[in-house]
Amino acid sequence: MFPYLKEAGKAHFQDRHMKKANELLVPWDGKHASHIGLLGVPLSKSSISHSGASFAPQTIRQALSFFSTYSIESGIDLADVMITDYGDIVMHPTDIVESQKRIAETVEQIVSIHPESLWIVLGGDHSVTCPVVSGWKKQKGKIGIIQFDAHHDLRNLEDGGPTNGTPFRRLIEAGVIDGSRLVQIGLRDFSNSRAYTEYGKRCGVTMYTIEEVHRLGIQAIIEASMQTLSDVDAVYVSVDMDVLDQAFAPGCPAIGPGGMDSRTLFHAISMLARYDEVQAMDIVEIDPTIDVRQMTSRLAAWVILQFLKEKKRLS
Q1: What family classification does the UniProt entry report for this protein (predicted)?
Q2: Cβ-based neighbours of 225, under 8 Å, separated by 6 or more
Q3: Is pLDDT of 2 > 80?
């Protein structure tokens, strides 16, 4: 009746010749699902620093609306791609361990129903990677992990429990992964301790500092990383956005200078997406409450689009 009225929150400009990336998200109906699944894991109570990363899943979804589905560089259009959005896992209001248990159980249940899906997981702080990988692995056999991060996240559990500083130590000590099948890229000066570097080396973890990223080049490092993981059945990519320099990602709780630039991260993700073995990716450690004009959430959305573009190129 009133052609100029729209539902509240949706009264924005629409162009009949342009599809926005957030339109690719289709809520799960409980039965049918596309080949690509997206899941929100809004946990940040386990962060050792102040963090509102629990707000990031919805902010990243919304940030997709800033971009179209068309890649002018490749000529690829994602307009016909459907992403099944499974929504967010409900966290316990006070119990971190219970929340992480819910994450592992939910991921295991969903992946068992749709084992062939490509998964994109939106954290949350980095503690969510441990239960997500634990649940995901049960359908995958032998797995490897490529971790983009300024930090090892191999802290001991005695001093603080299962925080966002411990996910990869937990995975190694629980036997979910072997240390030799963990590759860390972008480790930064003055962000780690000698004890955790030595622990990682004892466990066989492959480590690339940000200086090595600049010296060797990200293409050579990604190729070497996938060769390191050549004996696995599936690869999980974990993107801690604080791998980026604070100039690019101001919305990370643990910002710092000297990090990776955004184009290098995009190139790395694009390369990894070309491997069939890469079957899941998480994006963690974005706090929308301290971000600047959603810069960091927009970067996360761009990471997703780069990942999907290369996966579509393969199909």
Answers
A1: Belongs to the arginase family.
A2: 146, 183, 185, 206, 208
A3: no
